[in-house]
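testing teh design pipeline on a random one, pls ignore if ur not involved
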């Protein structure tokens, strides 16, 4: 007997049920790259469930969001999220990518 297809995508299930990091609500909807980075940094440092370093956890969550949103992100929104990556690197004392 074939399985019924779930209407929910696997990525939404990860977002809803993952205990890796607890994010503030609406973190990715903020307009400021700095605010996004600061929120992710705070969440990564305070989260007891993460399995990697705070930097890796925060960057992974941001990259996951960008990849899942894909072509639905406007150019300006994608640019803001990519600037948030650079802000995260600065916040954690890493060199920005060129």
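output:
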């Amino acid at each position: 007997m074939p399985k019924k297809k779930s209407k929910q995508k696997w990525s939404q299930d990860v977002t809803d049920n993952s205990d890796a990091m607890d994010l503030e609500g609406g973190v990715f909807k903020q307009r400021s790259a700095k605010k996004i980075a600061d929120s992710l940094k705070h969440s990564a440092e305070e989260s007891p469930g993460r399995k990697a370093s705070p930097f890796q956890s925060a960057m992974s969550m941001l990259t996951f969001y960008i990849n899942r949103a894909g072509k639905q992100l406007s150019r300006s929104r994608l640019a803001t999220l990519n600037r948030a990556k650079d802000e995260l690197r600065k916040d954690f004392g890493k060199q920005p990518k060129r």
